[in-house]
Amino acid sequence: MSAVTLPPFWSLVEAHGDELLVHARRMTGDSNGEDVLQDALLRALRAYPRLRHAEHLRAWLYRVTTTTALDHIRARRREVLTDEPPARAAEPEHYDDAFESLIGELPDGTQAALRLRFVEDLDYEGIAARLGCSAVAARQRVSTAIRTLRTQGIPA
Amino acid sequence: MTLPARLLDSIASAAVREGLADAIYTHLETPIGKLLIVQGERGVVRVGFPGERVDALLAQVAAHLGPRIVASDRELSDTRDALSAYFEGIDERLDLPVDLSLVRSDLRRMALTVLRDEVGPGHVVTYGALAAKVGHPKAARAIGTACATNPVPIIVPCHRVLPGSGGVGSYGGGPEVKRLLLAHEGATVG
Q: Are A151 and A104 in contact (CB under 8 A)?
């Protein structure tokens, strides 16, 4: 049992499941979104009792989903393009680290937008205020970054 | 929530299969309204009446068993079937494992265990008589508290415990529900 008071896990699924599925679909293509979400929620469940605080749980679930989606994309690409050894079996213990390493190759401004969206859990209005651009531009920047990760710049 | 039910089922079942669920819950439609049933590894840990707040009950369970709580009708099908059989009058024994870890004192836990073991369907007992069965004949008031705070009503049959002064007395689900359950079991109430 954890030291902090965490809400029952399913209440998070009920509150955020819909938007996480949209996010998973957007990242991986419609047909794989459900697989990705299932995998992501199971990963989240494994890590859940080890969380040290009960804040920003929505943003945390977004990060786990993002990381899971990128792992799926990477695994699929390996299957298609190479005969490299299969993806690492071990899961990263801390999704924050995995997230940082995933976005590490991107331009600074892009990284900032992704962090504001998925680490700080800001909406596009909030991101716009922080980056000094319009909400439309903020949304564009985040979706372009996700597309970049999906199509090319995924670090191994 | 609009996530497909089949996806939610699949996630919950995978979680249970991998041993990732501290508890599982389900809602069951019954003649006394929609019940919340929460089950941990050792058995049913909480039954909630229609008027009770689901989020508060689940938070209570999370505090005791852990926060990895998932919803699944499928994973609780045995428990659902047993309760449905009870309400349909097919089998009133409700022979299900229970987990009394939400009960806050040993005396209360003992009282509820004795009640469940010794007072079957169709039978009733007074608070005083149950206190005597537990070996504390003067503890009728404490026994009353044990019944009033019973986390697993219906399965642990606190509805079969009546005041010595007559009538059905109070009940978590309301006195009407208590009367209905007793009538359903064929018990005569004075």
A: no
What proportion of chain A, given as a percentage, has pLDDT over 90? Answer: 34
Show me where the domains of chain A are located.
10-151
CB contact under 8 Å between B69 and A17, yes or no, is: no
**Which residues on chain B are in Cβ contact (under 8 Å) with A41?**
11, 15
From B2, B11, B59, residue closest to A38, measured CB to CB: B11
Q: For chain B, how are helix, strand and coil distributed in percent, rounded to 5?
A: 45, 15, 40
The pLDDT of residue A111: 80
pLDDT band at A94 (very low <50, low <70, confident <90, very high): low
Residue ranges and CATH numbers for the domains of chain B are 5-87 (3.30.160), 106-185 (1.10.10.10)
Name the packing angle between helices A108-118 and A57-81 (round to 10°): 130
Average of per-residue pLDDT across B95-101: 96
Report pLDDT for A81.
Answer: 62
Measure A20 CA to nearest chain B CA, in Å. Answer: 10
